Structures are given as structure tokens and as C-alpha cells.
Amino acid sequence: MAYPTVSAPYGFRPINRLDGMPYAGATRTYKIASTYNTPIYFGDLVILVTGGTIEKFTGTATGSPVGVFMGCSYTSAQSQPLNAQYYPGTSVTNAAAVVAVDPVILCQVVATTAGSAVSAGALASIGSNMEVVTGTGNANTGDSGMSVLAGSEAGTAAFPIRVVDVVYATATGADAFPELIVKINLHQFNNTTGV
């Protein structure tokens, strides 16, 4: 059976750890400030901000994410407590995000153009750093639109993502891999600068 075609970005999906151990679903819960009005989707990178709350990572070429958004709970405008795939950003209270915060977690992600069209990385991408494409999340599925920027592979220390491997099953050519295995380059908990 052939691997499904990669048709769009879906954010960062935790798959295992850099040391080879499986990802066991370990997460930490953080509040989302009631004044924060930006949607956060399943698979979005997030940052910890002053006050101990999280927000969507909006950096592209710099920044230190704290982890990957894995869903949330909140109270709806109708006073119903809900668990959800994404944070809608408005008309909710008591929001709390579930975040995969392991500094050595590996994620599968799609390489795209700046406009979020699926592209590819090469074997030479392994070991390089890449920029993030923030993309647009999907309110119907709750999935992220984040990806990494194809062609941004470099040794630039500030780039937020490090490529660890390619997903061989998604190859569209001899050296073209739409999906990559990555880690956060400078995890917020490993950054000596605090919030």
C-alpha cells in the first residue's frame, strides 16, 4: 500500500524523542489568558509568556517555542465546559491548553512554500535549521496550518527548527521529501533568557 499523498500542512505532530524513546503523550497544562484572541490549532507551536500563560508561536526566522499545542479545554459562551482540538480565540473563558513540552521531542511536519503549498526537503536538510511558516489553521478539523519553509535550510542559529531526518515513505522523487522529522532548535526551557 502506498503512503498517502501529502496535500497540505498539518502542523507539528509529536512522534518520538531524539534519544529514540517513543513519545508517550506526556504533556503539561497551561492557562490561556482570557484576553488572548488568536486561535491556536492542534499542532501549532506555542510559547510561554509573562504571567504563565501560553500563546501561539508567531516567529518565523527566530524564537524559542515551548512546545506543541495538543488541544484544550474551556467554557463556551453558552457556559458549557468543552474539550476541543483547537482554541477558537474568542467567546470562551477558563481556557487551558494541553502542550507537549519535552525539549527533545521529535515532530513530523510538512515542508512548504511561504504560501503553504506543499514542497519538499532533501537529504541535505538533515542537520540544518529551518524557518517556520505559520500558515492558517482549519476551524473545521481543528488542525494547524504550520509547516517549515522549504529552501530555508541553513546553519543559521536563530532559526527555530532543526531537521533530524526525512520521512522516506513520502518521497516524491529521488531526493524530494515533503515530510521531515524535526525538533525545536532552541526550546524555551533550554533558553537561558526567561519570559
Molecular structure report:
The model has no long low-confidence stretch (mean pLDDT 95). This protein is 0% helix and 34% strand. The chain is globular. The chain has strands at residues 13-17, 28-31, 45-49, 53-56, 67-75, 81-84, 93-100, 105-112, 129-130, 132-133, 147-149, 161-166, 179-184. The N and C termini lie far apart (47 Å). It folds into two domains: 13-20 and 103-184, no CATH class; 28-100, no CATH class. With 195 residues, it is mainly beta.
Annotation keywords:
195 residues, mainly beta, 2 domains, seven-stranded mixed sheet, six-stranded antiparallel sheet, 13 strands, 0% helix, globular
Largest sheet: 7 strands, mixed
Given the structure, what is the number of helices? 0
The total tally of domains equals 2
Based on CA atoms alone, the radius of gyration comes out at: 16 Å
Query: Which percent range fits the helix content?
Result: under 10%
What proportion of the residues form beta strands (DSSP E)? 25-35%
Shape: globular
Low-confidence stretches: none
Assembly annotation: single chain
- Helices and strands: which structural class? mainly beta
Number of strands: 13
- How far from one another are the termini? 47 Å
Summed over residues and divided by their number, the pLDDT gives a mean of: 95
The succession of helices and strands, N to C, reads: EEEEEEEEEEEEE
